[in-house]
From TrEMBL:
SUPFAM superfamilies: Acyl-CoA dehydrogenase C-terminal domain-like (SSF47203), Acyl-CoA dehydrogenase NM domain-like (SSF56645). This is Dibenzothiophene desulfurization enzyme C. Residues 253-388 form the Acyl-CoA dehydrogenase C-terminal domain. The keyword Glycoprotein does not apply. Signal peptide: none annotated. InterPro entries: Acyl-CoA_DH_C, Acyl-CoA_Oxase/DH_mid-dom_sf, AcylCo_DH-like_C, AcylCoA_DH/ox_N, AcylCoA_DH/ox_N_sf, AcylCoA_DH/oxidase_NM_dom_sf. One of its GO terms (molecular function) is flavin adenine dinucleotide binding. GO terms for biological process: L-leucine catabolic process. Residues 35-121 form the Acyl-CoA dehydrogenase/oxidase N-terminal domain. Residues 1-24 are annotated as: Disordered. The gene is soxC. Keywords: Flavoprotein, Oxidoreductase.
């Protein structure tokens, strides 16, 4: 959808007429309103694959982009347990938009993970007041961007295969390695405006799922940043903390959130279709599909499994809350033990989401394979993103901790 008249949320809800929510209950209700708008035409928008400018505008108008922002600057003042549940709600309506929101919230928060106190305050104030939407060009499987010093500036150059958010972002997070800093090198994060001559988004995201995430490749050509904006650096020297390494467990829980949201969307959309459209088997002796014993078993099994993983995800998010609240004093033991729990829920969320989104067709019937209905999008979305990093390595982290009392070493994926 590209016109104002057809934009999701157009002439539906005027959020500006009401004060923003002040607690988790209110923000979850706001997220459900966004979900209902998105899910009305999610299948059609998935087929069209258009750049989701209007969908991101909807996230801004609803206030969800500033969910984690300081209240004094107009933000929601919420914490990660609420954010993860909000991402799940949005992803239930549209998996792509749930991923965009999740990545945005991670990059919005990244100043707290890496930055100095002054940088954190400045970034969050500007991002909240201006409702910036964040993208990121930080794919660790590619060669790092190179950074050269030029007076009081650092200058980024290079290419990344993936840059989620790309054209719909207001700002992009860059990460690279400083020339001459050896191996593994000095890594530097910075936030830059997305619309500038030095950044070229290549519009080459053409995957089977998560089609509206704008995750194509990007070329960075002499993008200049003041040294004072290098995240976590003081007088050109990085200020390390254990908390600097919490970006990976946090983004992994973002992944869990939109996997579970997509699974929830498949289950509830499927149940609605089964109640209203699916016919009973002609030799089964039932008058309604909802009375078929195999339907009751299927939906009961999937609901039970989803509830279980959602509960685990909520518990792990709550465990992380104390780590986030005591960011300056996190220990390696705390960080490692938390990552093991994150690995466990990531593994279970992956398996359950794939099972539900592929198996739900058993409850729908042959007519539900019509392309117009787009029931396949749920599986395509989960299958695409769950290949981000091998889930076997997540299970291995859990096993190594249980059998050998080992904690995962912080990496770009653990």
């Amino acid at each position: 959808m590209t016109t104002t008249e057809n934009r999701p949320g157009s002439d539906v809800i005027d959020w500006s007429a009401a004060p923003p929510p002040t607690d988790e209950t209110g923000w979850l209700q706001r997220a459900r309103e966004v979900r209902r708008i998105l899910e009305r035409d999610a299948a059609a928008r998935d087929r069209a694959g258009a750049t989701p400018y209007d969908e991101v505008a909807l996230l801004k108008e609803s206030g969800l982009v500033t969910l984690l922002g300081p209240v004094e600057h107009g933000g929601g003042g919420q914490e990660w347990p609420t954010a993860y549940r909000v991402i799940r709600e949005v992803a239930a309506g549209d998996g792509s938009i749930g991923q965009l929101l999740g990545y945005h919230l991670l990059w919005f928060w990244a100043a707290r993970l890496v930055g100095t106190p002054d940088q954190i305050e400045a970034v969050e104030a500007d991002a909240t007041r201006n409702r910036w939407f964040f993208g990121g060009a930080v794919n660790p499987r590619d060669a790092d961007l190179t950074i050269r010093e030029d007076g009081d500036d650092i200058v980024y150059s290079g290419h990344k295969s993936f840059s989620t958010g790309s054209k719909v972002s207001d700002v992009t997070v860059l990460e690279g390695v400083l020339d001459g800093s050896g191996d593994p090198g000095t890594h530097v994060f910075a936030i830059v405006p997305s619309e500038q001559e030095g950044i070229t988004f290549h519009d080459d995201w053409d995957n089977i799922g998560q089609r509206l995430t704008e995750s194509g490749s990007v070329t960075i050509d002499d993008v200049r940043v003041p040294w004072t904006s290098a995240a976590g650096f003081v007088d050109r020297a990085f200020q390390p903390r254990i908390y600097n390494t919490l970006n990976v467990p946090t983004i992994q829980l973002v992944f869990v959130s939109f996997y579970l949201g997509i699974a929830r969307g498949a289950l509830e959309t499927g149940a609605e279709y089964t109640r209203g459209t699916t016919r009973p088997w002609l030799h089964g002796g039932q008058q309604r599909a909802v009375d078929e014993p195999y339907q009751l078993d299927l939906y009961g099994d999937y609901q039970s499994k989803l509830w279980a993983v959602e509960a685990l995800a909520d518990a792990v998010a709550q465990e992380a809350l104390e780590i986030h609240r005591d960011a300056w004093n996190v220990t390696a033991q705390q960080r490692g033990a938390h990552e093991v729990r994150v690995a466990a829920v990531k593994a279970r969320a992956t398996e359950v989401a794939l099972e539900i989104t592929s198996g739900i067709f058993e409850g729908l019937g042959a007519r539900a394979t019509a392309a117009q209905l787009g029931f396949d999008r749920f599986w395509r979305n989960v299958r695409t993103h769950t290949l981000h990093d091998p889930v076997a390595y997540k299970r291995r982290e859990v096993g190594a901790h249980l059998l050998r009392d080992e904690l995962p070493e912080p990496t770009w994926y653990s």
